[in-house]
C-alpha cells in the first residue's frame, strides 16, 4: 500500500492503494473502466461487509467507495479486490461515458487508455485529483463534472480541448484532430508535471502553453452540442443493448441491499453492471431482464424515477455515521423529499452537510443546511464554509425547510424557477420568511 492519503485532507484523493480517513473510518475507492458481471459485483460487495462497515458509496463521478475501514482492513481489502481481477482504473482519472462502446458514435476508450498509459510514466508528479474527461455527447453526459483537461468530440474528426471547470466554465484552448489527440493530452500532462504537484487545469494560462501542446491545436471548432439528456430508468443503448439506470439515495447504500440487487440481476441474466456518474448504477441486458430488475431496484431502496426529489439532494453520511456530524442528514433529506417536494424543480439542489467540511459537495450549492455546534445554519448560493444567512436552533431544520417551500409556493412568478425565485428574493427575503431568532 502506498503512503496513506493525508487525514481528511481536502487535496487528498482516495484510491484502493491509498485509503482516505473520513468521519467513519478509512475509505477506499474502487474505480472501474468497464462494466463487471453480477457475480463480480456480489463478490465486491461482500468484501465491503468483510473488511468495512458494509456501507457503500457511488460518488458523483461514478466511483465505488467502500467505507468504514481500518488501515489494516484496507490493506486486506486491496489484496482481495486485486484477486477478483477486475478492470480497475489505476493512476490518473480518465473518465468517459459508462455507455462507451455500446452506443452509436465515437468510442472514447482507445484514446482514454492511451492517455492513462502515458500518465503512468508521470506517477507521483501530477496533482492527486487531476482528471481528464472525454465527452462524446451521448445518452449519458459528463458536462457537469469538473475536469482539468476536457476533450469534447466534434463529429468524427476531432475534439475541442478545454482546461479546468465544467463544460460551461472550462476555457477552450483549441481543436485537436483525432489522430493527434493522445499526443496533445500527453504534452499537456507533461506540462502539468513540469509545474509541480499543485498544478491544476483552472490555473494554467493558455498563453503560457508550451510548443509541444500548441503544435497540435487548431482554432476551436464550432460545435452545436445536443441538449444534455442523461437517461434514467429503462432505455435502449445502440442497436443491441437495453439498460437500466438507477441511483443510490444520497449516493450511499447498504452493501447487502446492493448484493441482493446483483443476485437478482444474475438470476435475470443481466450481462453486466457498472457504477455511473451522479451516484448511479447502470445494468446491461435484454429488455425483459432490465424491466424485471427495475422492480427489484425499487424493493432494495434504489431510486428508480428520474424526477424523484431525492436525486436533487446531496447529503453526506452525517449523524450518526460520521463522528464529526452535527446533523442527521439522511433523515432530514428523506423528510425534505417527502414533506417539501415543492422545493425540488431541478433548479434548486439542496446540500445537507453534517459539518462545515462539506465532503460530498465542496463546491457552492444554491441551498446548504450545515450542522454546527449550536444546531445548524443555512448557506445561500455558497459553500458550506461560507458565511451563513441564518443560524437555526437544534431541531429547527425541518421547520426551515417547510418555510422555504412555503416561500417558494407563495412567491414564485410565472415562468420563474425555484432557484430564480430565491435569487430574486435574496438573503433578506429568505431570512424574513424563516422568522425571528435562531
Ligand atoms: S461533511 Fe459530513 S461526512 Fe464529512 S466530516 Fe462532516 S459530517 Fe462527516
UniProtKB/TrEMBL annotation:
Gene3D superfamilies in the record: Sulfite Reductase Hemoprotein, domain 1, Sulfite Reductase Hemoprotein,Domain 2
Cited SUPFAM superfamilies: Nitrite and sulphite reductase 4Fe-4S domain-like, Nitrite/Sulfite reductase N-terminal domain-like
Keywords annotated in UniProt: 4Fe-4S, Heme, Iron, Iron-sulfur, Metal-binding, Oxidoreductase
Pfam families named in the record: NIR_SIR_ferr (PF03460)
Domain Nitrite/Sulfite reductase ferredoxin-like: 35-83
E.C. numbers: 1.14.13.83
InterPro entries associated with the record: Cbl_synth_CobG-like, NIR_SIR_4Fe-4S, NiRdtase/SiRdtase_haem-b_fer, Nit/Sulf_reduc_fer-like_dom_sf, NO2/SO3_Rdtase_4Fe4S_sf
Descriptive protein name: Precorrin-3B synthase
Species this protein is from: Rhizobium oryzicola
